[in-house]
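Quick question about two entries, pasted in order.
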Amino acid sequence: MKSPNPAFSHVDVPLASSFILSSKAGKEAWVQPVVQGDSYRFEVRTGKPPESAKNGTKLGRGANFCCLMSDAPIEPKHIYAEANAGRMGAKLMAIVAEGARGRIYLAPLPEHEAIAQQAQPQWKPETAMPENPRWFSPPLYGLKTYGDLFTPRQLVALTTFSDLVPEAIARIRADALAAGMADDGRGLDAGGNGATAYAEAVGVYLAFSIDKASDYWSSICTWHSSKDLIRNTFGRQAIPMTWDYAETNPFSDSAGNVSSGIEWAYKALQLMPAKADGTAVQSDAQSQTISANKVISTDPPYYDNIGYADLSDFFYVWLRRSLRPIFPNLYATLAVPKAEELIATPYRHGSKEKAEVFFLDGMTAAMHNLAAQAHPAFPVTIYYAFKQSDTKDDGSSTHSTGWETFLEAVLRAGFTLTGTWPMRTELGNRMIGSGTNALASSIVLVCRPRPADADTISRREFQRQLREQLPEALETMIGGSSGQSPIAPVDLAQAAIGPGMGIYSQYAAVLNQDGTPMSVHEALILINRQITDFLTPDAGSFDADTLFANSWFEQYGWAEGPFGEADVLARGKGTSVAGVAEAGVVHSGAGKVRLLRWADYAADWNPATDNRAPVWEAAHHLIRALNTQGESAAGALLAAMPDKAEPVRQLAYHLYTLCERKKWAEDARAYNELITAWHAVLQASREEGPRGEQLGFEA
């Protein structure tokens, strides 16, 4: 893009988010821009890269860069204007090649770039991307259609391979006939069972393979410098704007080559266990009758998390080019149908409120249809991928509009919840590694139709039942009962809704003091308060030092605070700052007090010889041992203090909840990992011998 600096307004300066090519130890490489007068070139350097190479010319999130020539900031408004005027281009930075001992990186020559620019595609998809920046960033920068996401030579490759599919079908049919296969002259769409249908079936899988290739052949694909490979377009369910991208060689042996998609399709068919015929029917969930008297387990759309139909167009445009002759009715439209898609999409419905009403009404109708048709002997199980980052803190509780709206629809449909349970369905590195709990688990709702003669109860009675029944259910979930695997803290908030909503949903209504029905939102607030009360250290038998540390952590985290405040708080908790410092939990000096992080705790700590070992200290020593030495070391530590096991576990749950509410994702991760590894740590503690045998509690 042209520099905004008048002195260099004739120079196309790079918008690069990184100059790092390889960050593998011993194989580091990066792109070094070499400025000469009013021009520059890219060279490849090896060895430890300078810190400046990490962020390229990027200054911050989004479209914020600096001019390579003048260091002047390139503001988003300049980038928006230039890009939408069609004045954003691309420049070759480096070439990745296969060497004798792995990847090698080469500086580009003018001939390389000239070859790339010679590609002239005869066709490209003209379907427009939606103007919805939540899922689609490229339209903000002038890339308006799906065809704009591909470079000319990527388009040539995709159109060439797509057009080869009908050719392959014709040859396969001819080969099948030559081999003696009968032919009824009917294709797949007409229910054919001969050579024509066989050839078209193979063609479908070839088209799938090319469609998969489009995921690796777009200008949204970036380079993974720590793994020396290309990232595909859909690292998540969105199409972001990428500033530097990698083009894969379709004929290479690397990720994204044209053969890999064909091999995946072949392996899927080869390993598919089902041998009998099957059927697939497309039908509207609000009116279908397919599920009558059947066991139902369904995975419905998740409110507004994913724009399935909009995102599907990326693949549809290529499938349509290959398969429209085979399935003319299926590919009759230029883009995927969207009007009836049951998600809350504000841009489609005019406002967030209208989108929510559309989702609630449609999901209620769909769930009511399921409830009416479900087999009476079995519950209906519904998977819902709860997205932690959707939660909002209103001061008294944490809630999610999508989650509440979905629950409202399920209950309106006449279901009662008999349980909720998390299933780990997402990659672990998506949970907290990116700084947020992006998508932790799918929550399974276990539902049965509510009896027609269900009673009505008061708000006070509902609260009484919560106080009586939730603690036992929570104790079971965190692993208090024999043989129970503990639910990780990241999942507890949603799993614990099950018992609470089970109470709420079994009644026709829960009435507030003024006679109005209690909403799902209000019920969830009361349920979450009971969960918080159960997990708070003040509700248990925690020592005074732990109570002080917890309150100080809630106020200051790991930062320093004034000694005077700490002194008042410590006295109120029945301890002293000096005492807590003696316990090894805080550092006090120069009028300031701060809590020690787990990494600050001594590696040679022995609980057997520590005369003042609060639960807080024990918990963070276990985290230290787990993170630095693994489960065996943490187990050995726990074996020396078996009486601390249950309080430590309860404290870890509480501190995770606290960190999650305050959006301290990295701190939350430590507590979540301790609970996730809890059973392994317990097992390791038992293997310590006599100390392990004296634990006196069940896993």
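Here is the second entry:
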Amino acid sequence: MLHSECTSTLSLVTDELIPHLKDIGRGVEKEGLRVKPCAGIADDTHPESLGSTLTHDSITTDYSEALLEFISPKQTNIDDTVTYLSTLHQYTLKNIGDQLIWPTSMPCRIDGEESIPIARYGRSNVGTLKHVYRQGLGVRYGRTMQAIAGIHYNFSLSDGFWKAYQTKFVQQQGEEQTVDGFGEGGLQDFKSAHYFSLIRNFRRYSWILHYLFGASPVLDSSFLANHPRHNLDKLGKNTFGLPFATSLRMSDLGYQNSAQEELHISYDSLGDYVTTLAKAMKQSYGPYEKIGVKNGEQYIQLNTNVLQIENEYYSDIRPKRVTKSGEKPIAALKERGVEYIEVRILDINPYLPEGISSQQMRFMDAFLLHCLFSQCPQNSDTRCTEIRGNQTKVILHGRDPELTLERNGQQVPFKTAATELLDTIMQTATLLDKAHDSFEYTSAIYAQQAKVDDVALTPSAMLMQAVEQGVDFIDIAYAQAEKHKMHYASLKLTQESEQDLIEQAAKSIKAQQKIESEDTIEFAEYLSNYNAS
């Protein structure tokens, strides 16, 4: 399903370009709370056997000391990515005693905000900066929101693809096209422009992801302690939610952020994105000025600006570039352009041990390629309103059989819009199957169409069905956590994999110690330099 003003460049994907589709690079960042047998957040420090959270490449923490984050390396084989995530789960569960890894995006039982320990990264300046940034998130938005977990999906195409695609594109569009028009220019400029086109189209069509993969229609009552004016229904003794919701994690309830409501970060081009984001990072905000940077001698936020750092901007999708040591992400993007994109809206599927499956990844690849090949103009204010409206509808009411979406100012039944979109995505899935000599990508589309035809197959409906049978959210999630732990215990962690992770842990601890030993200035000076850069 394309908007009326959009065109497709699928015709450019000819036989000589198709083989490059085998070289899609992907990585997964999967979060999960460590929880105690009582279903409360673990209050101990990150186990030393898992390594340093500052320097470990694969096992770290996000906001909380208890919020694990597993990071798979960039890989071109989907099954290898799933296997790597499985290995990280196996190794971690073996090293956290009787604790479990919480299998849902919405958190376990929360005994007040102070029960959520903020992550620590050692005594180096960079480690202290990471900790203070998280302190800032806590004082700005509350710790409860930061206990929410998710899955980030990193996606990139090879230089071989981009060179071939640029050649075809310029031939079709003519030599007079500018870089902003996606025509001739340096390869990196071309890549960045098209990644931003992908991002804009992702925002148009991402409502389908909330429906297909949303898995947070309910939450525990303890999450609402600081949300007295919520509009959720009581669905169980300690369970609240909305009857047709798909992803409360992505609703305003999950990401309340009044300071960012007035931000207008532009995705029209790399230059506009960098400029508008940099402005927000330098723009002071009155309520944060009242909080102050320090409480006595303790730093509680990095600065009083709308954004302490780039990552504080809660976007559904981000353009990314691997940074050099000490380099800010925005500087890396400005200097060297977009390297890959990071999808940030995926819930953890509690019914999957890794929280995500190879089938879902194949769908994501086909979906993101559809977004790349759908050449749409930049989003007007009117179109942005339509985009946000459709996203909100599906997040809060996605399983409502009467749901309609807005398309070009007209109301369209949800099932019609979803089926038309999946039919269009099937074209890119066919190309991927041709590249891989398989039927797995088209099969992934058929599996998603089945969810459109039968809402009961969606993970949000599966979770809601259990609630409707009288089981509280906490009990459902805890049972799944135990099930996953038993699953991993039944698998044999190879001696090679275990030894590799033991060595990674030891190496990361030495790397942290080295960083700490090389600091030459006090943190106050380090922070001043950081904020000034």
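Reply: Residues 175-184 have pLDDT under 50 and may be disordered. The CA atoms of residues 78 and 361 lie 7 Å apart. Hope that helps.
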